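Q: My hope is that you can spare some time for a protein that puzzles me. Underneath my words sits a plain record pairing an amino acid chain with its backbone structure tokens. Those tokens are not coordinates but codes from a learned vocabulary of shapes. Thank you; the sequence and its tokens follow:
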Amino acid sequence: MPIKNIFRSIIGLSALLLVQAPAFAATPPAAMVCESCHGTAGLGMPNLAPMLAGMDKDYLVEQINHFKNGNRKNPSMTSMVMTLPTQESVQQVAAFFASLPAPVISDVEKRGDHVIITDPARKLVYQGDWTRNIPACATCHGPSGLGVAHFPRLASQHADYISNQLTAWQSKQRSGDHNNVMATIAQQLTATEIQHLAQYFAAIK
């Protein structure tokens, strides 16, 4: 291929990529400190910070305020949220991360799609265990754990974060949900089930 045609191809490909590149909202000043752990795309990092991209804005506002009022206990986050002095700044941070695109799930599974489920973790997700009063996770967190309003997305979330949160619900290091639902459910789960559920949701891509 002549060299000028190669350059034309590169220029054309670059232009195409620019057109197709997602347009992220500009980071508000209040959210810049959050990006150091949660990333500029809000996807977080394993063993450091959870994915926030695409989470419901009101859910994020609620969680930031839980860190402020002590319903959620984490030394790093408790100090970080104190850099948000006003509810306006809390709203700005929440709106920014809610606007970022979360990973797209290509094969969404709903409750009832399969009657016979043998994998224990997947069975808890879609059928629960009523002998222990454990409802299906998908009842609140939606198909494939994509999240519904105040019930956060679990699909593609980092496994260590999910397992840590379920353990925090058990140990009362986390509270503040409506009617103490998650704490009640987490109390019924074994350590093995927590690990398997965390791995299951993290693997949903």
Residues 37 and 49 are 6 Å apart (CA to CA). DSSP finds ten helices and no strands in the chain.
